[in-house]
Amino acid sequence: MNLKPLAFSIALLCSVPTMAAKPNTDLQLMPYPQQVSLTNSTPLVIDRHFNAQLTGFTSPRLISLVERLNHRIERQTGLFLTTPIQTKNQTPTLTIDVKAPAPTKVQRAKEDESYQLDVTSKQAKLTANTPYGAMRGIETFLQLIQSDTNGFNIPTVTIEDSPRFPWRGALIDTARHFIPVDVIKRQLDGLASAKLNTFHWHLTDDQGWRLESVAYPNLQEKGSDGLFYTREQIKDVVAYANSLVFESFQKWIYPVMLAQLPRLTLS
Questions:
Q1: 262 near 219, Cβ under 8 Å?
Q2: What's the distance, Cα to Cα, between the start and end of the chain in Å?
Q3: Region of residue 31 (left: phi > 0; alpha: psi -120 to 50; beta: else)
Q4: How far, in Å, CA of 71 to CA of 236, rounded?
Q5: From CA 230, how far away is CA 173, in angstroms rounded?
Q6: What per-residue confidence (pLDDT) applies to 259?
Q7: Helix-helix angle 131-144:181-193, to 10 degrees
Q8: Cα angle: 22, vertex 95, 37; to 5 degrees
């Protein structure tokens, strides 16, 4: 039996870091951060007085991020937050310190998504070089929320993290199976919670033409069974994806499209 091909394959696999490091705690984090240091101090209490504050660079996107954080905490815990955004003369539960604006309006591959999260018994501090890192850190913060007989809390921990892979994408195929806009947005929420950063939207194929064409309306009228997205809906979904720090790609199958044009564009 020739073992050389097998030996070569094993050597190749061992030379590439295909497996992430084994978690060193039982914290339910996904994906597991690069470095996690857990202490035995009293946890940080999360109650209806939870509040967050932007202390460094700020922007409408980051303000929206804080609002989204508050809404997510309310949904996870059932609490109704009394003062979700604190003024600068008050002590916040969580400070978010972003060092600089994002280099691009829409995230591109290999941009800085690193962050550091320090949680003590009194306060949590999230530090990131860019808004992209802050958004990833917020997802980790939300995943850390746990409950016990006394209510909700976050363990005292220090986390330093950055993605292992710059391109982390998912494809939603609405050409073969039409999906309503609100369901797509819910899927994007789930993808963002897993810290993915690329959204592929499959819009045309043999099974359906799912986008509105003003120049050739027969494309959607005869190629979609009435199930397609208007131009405004597409803009809305792409804008929503961008707000969650997704780079969006609308996927068209060009050979199929070109084959259908003679039949579908005739009035």
A1: no
A2: 66
A3: beta
A4: 20
A5: 17
A6: 59
A7: 90
A8: 25
Q: What predicted TM-score, i.e. pTM, was given to this entire model?
A: 0.83
The pair of three-digit structure tokens given for residue 86, joined into one six-digit string: 């604190």
Q: Is 73 exposed, middle or buried (0-12, 13-18, 19+ CB in 10 A)?
A: buried
Q: What pLDDT does residue 9 have?
A: 47
Statement: residue 106 has pLDDT above 90: no
**Residue listed under structure tokens 């809404």:** 71
H-helix or E-strand spanning residue 138: helix 131-144
pLDDT value of residue 189:
93
**What stretch of H or E contains 96?**
strand 94-98
CA separation for the pair 183, 172 (Å, rounded): 11
Q: Are the beta carbons of 234 and 250 closer than 8 angstroms?
A: yes
Query: Following DSSP, what letter does each residue of 180-241 receive, concatenated?
Result: -HHHHHHHHHHHHHTT--EEEEE-EETTEE-B--SS-THHHHHHSTT--B-HHHHHHHHHHH
Beta-carbon count within 10 A of 267 CB? 5
Give me the pLDDT at residue 107, please. Answer: 73
> CB 203: neighbour CB atoms within 10 A?
20
